[in-house]
Structure formats: C-alpha cells, structure tokens
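SAMPLE LOG
Freezer: B-3
Tube label: C17
Construct: single chain, 297 aa
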Amino acid sequence: MKAALVAEDGTLLHEARRPTGRERGPEAVVDTILGFAADLRDHGVREYGEPAAAAGVAVPGIVDSAAGVAVYAANLGWRDLPLRALVSERLGGVPVALGHDVRTGGLAEGRIGAGNGADRFFFLPLGTGIAGAIGIDGRIEAGAHDAAGEIGHIVVRPGGPLCGCGQRGCLETLASASAVSRAWAAASGDVEADAADCAQAVESGDPRALAVWREAIEALADGLVTGITLLDPRVLIIGGGLAEAGDTLFGPLRAAVEERITFQKLPLIVPAALGDTAGCLGAGLLAWDLLSVEVTA
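STRUCTURE (predicted):
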C-alpha cells in the first residue's frame, strides 16, 4: 500500500510504501492501514510542526463512500468494514474520507494530471482488472449505488472467457494487463511471461504476440466505443500496467477506436500522467475536499 502527505494544491510532500500483509488475514491489513496512517501523522508533526488536518483512504472493491464503509473486497477479505470510523479514531478524531481506488485515482488525474482542464473525462486503468472513473467538472461521478464506471464488466465477446463477476466475455477478461499476460503465457509457452513481455515481443514483430495484442486491442476498442457512446468524454485517459507499453498500445488503439465510431466524437486518447501515485494524490484531494466543505458550511 502507498501513503502520502499531500498539500492543498496537490503537491506530494512525502510518500511511503509498505506491504499490505494480506497473507496474515483481513484484520492484519486493517492494522497495517491504521499503523501506517498514524506513522504518517507523526511524520507530519516532525517535519511540518503539525499533523494533517484530514485524511483520505482509497480502497478496492465495493465502497459506500457516504457511510464510510468498505463493503466488500475479494482480494482483502473485507465485508462491511467501518474503515472511515476506524481511521478517524486512530488519528484522534480528524475528518476522514473513504473512496474507491480507481475513482480516487481518476480524481487526481482529472484535477492535476492528464485530464486537467477537461470538463468531461473518462479514466481507465488497465491492470489486474479494468474499471473506470467518470469525471465531470472536477468531480467523480460515483453513481446511485457507488458503482459507476465499471466498464470492465461490459460484455464485449458473448460466450467468451468466464469472468469473476459470473458473466462471460467481459472486457477485463480480454483486455486487462492480467488477461494479456495469461494469453501471452499460453501463446509463448512461457508460464512466467507477462503483458510487458508481450509488448516487447510485439515490438520485435513476433506473430504470436501480434495476434494476442490485436485481440486485446480490438476487445478494448469495442468496450471504449460503448463508453464513448454513453459518456461522450472530451478526454479518455488510459493508465495501469498495460499503458506502460506507450505507442505500442496507443497507436493501434487510437486507430481501432476511430475505425469503430460513426456519429460519436472521437475524444483525445492520452496516457495517464501520475502513474501509481494517482491513488495517493486522489486520497489527499478527497481529504482537502472534506475541509473545503466544512469551511463552506
């Protein structure tokens, strides 16, 4: 997990990382978060003479931001965890915001990253899975049930690979970094091969890699056109591990999307700017937003 002290303008003042400890169970992960938050508070006191005025926490899975509850996280074993209250208590009662990791990263990319200045954007990290964040006028649309932006579970290949959600042919089963890794490991015969290896093989002209890459890009383009049709974003921001392939991804992806659109307006398709610090920065922005609301009230 990553943590940071963030200034009001989004400047990263201090960053630290430590293992989640999830192999020791969900309670150990919570203990790690609380201890990490306390250590960060103490660092702020030592370096700046005062503790942070608020905190933001971004977690994966299903999050009830209004209630401050981490509803469900399969990888961490959480169910209905009152994380906001736990962190606030550990930090002496400071206000705490709880957010979804992808939407929080999208908030940072929209305000201070690749979407800065765009009134409408869609942030899409391609990592273990695929989820999205819908940006509107500097805020992230969470949806009526805190589930907006889950484009990874749009079915793009009916009857395709089984997804963890129970459907077949979901976008993330074909175009996530994990999906490309699985496909390239099978095609190359190297069980250790991953998406980065596939991108390198594409650059060298390996026909097996080109076939795997083409299938992923075509699936991704199909999903993106659905998103573009529904959301009409001005900027489409692609992040996550797969985006690290650079032009190997973005060149053919832009072409594939352009081939598929008809009446839709083609958005600017750009790589994310903040890398894996987006979540930390976004959590900091959530905290500053809390303070802004309190001042306004």
